[in-house]
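DEPOSITED CHAIN:
***
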Amino acid sequence: MIDTLPVELIAKIIGELDLDDVIRMSQLSRRLKLVASDAVLNVWRLPIMRTLRLNQYETALKNLSVHMSVPRHNWVDILAMANAPYILFESTLPNLKEAEWEEAFKMRFLPSWARRKRDKTWKATFLSVLHQTWHRSCTSCTTNEAWTKYIVLNRNGSANLLEVSSRNFNPVLILNDMRMQQNLLHLQIRARLVVQLADVRILALGTLDRPLSPLTVNPNAKVFLHPLDMDNDDDTTTAPIPPHLQMYSRLKYPLPAITHINYPFYSPGGADKRWIMPEEVGLEWVGGLMVVAQIIGQGQGPDVASANAWPPLQDHDLVIGPGRQQYMSLTWEDLWTIAPWLEEKISKRIDGQGLGI
């Protein structure tokens, strides 16, 4: 009887099924197989996205590539969102076009990491970078990245791109040196999770205080963590953006984890802690704000369990503890991608130490 329905309605019905049921449906009849194979209708996308977001894909997706009725482009989303060990060691990868591997790379990784491509194909680059990142997430190895870059937003409106030996990189110690020079050591270090990606978290570390003088306030720190008029609480990725926010769009390259899926807008669920909390009323960011890219350690991934955990990671919990000791480089290109509204706010960009005079 279902064979008599319009193909659009059949596709909509199939799209509401679990992934395993979609596989079975695609094998029931010639017409259902044709509907399942249609790249425009793409009945696979919604079941695949639901499976990825529930973090229950190891079995369902493991051999999905052997089913020829699955449009290959669906694997771009899988490569962008699935965890590294599954992609590297468990899944059977399909034959994809070079452009699809390139898109998967841009959706998963920070833009500056594309410098590692050199003469390799996008497939080789994707798998190489993914393996290196996974390797560093579970070891202290720094062979592939001897120096780690980070950015400091200064209270005078300028910003510095700095680097430290990866083996000795410790953002808390670096920030303490900065705070000592700025006479802020008596105040507590504050850390905020700006956005979480598939393999790294972008963190901001600084100091909150009730300043006696506006000269100590870091204006770009608040702009970076809570841009003006972006406290949109839509909880779906398809909700329309209000007219006054049309200049912004949800981040797609790279694609945020489910915990920050609406970034740069607010993502409900408790993990998005950029927004001003009741205990922070009246406080201002003072001194320098350090921005780093932290590799997500094993067991710290963006699954549903971690998204619903309470309390969410904040302050020292973000930088102290197992799986929180490894960092990747963050450059100007990455910062403008994560926070494009900040680019026009920075009065001077300085590569290295100094005031840029």
User: Anything to note?
Assistant: DSSP finds 13 helices and seven strands in the chain.
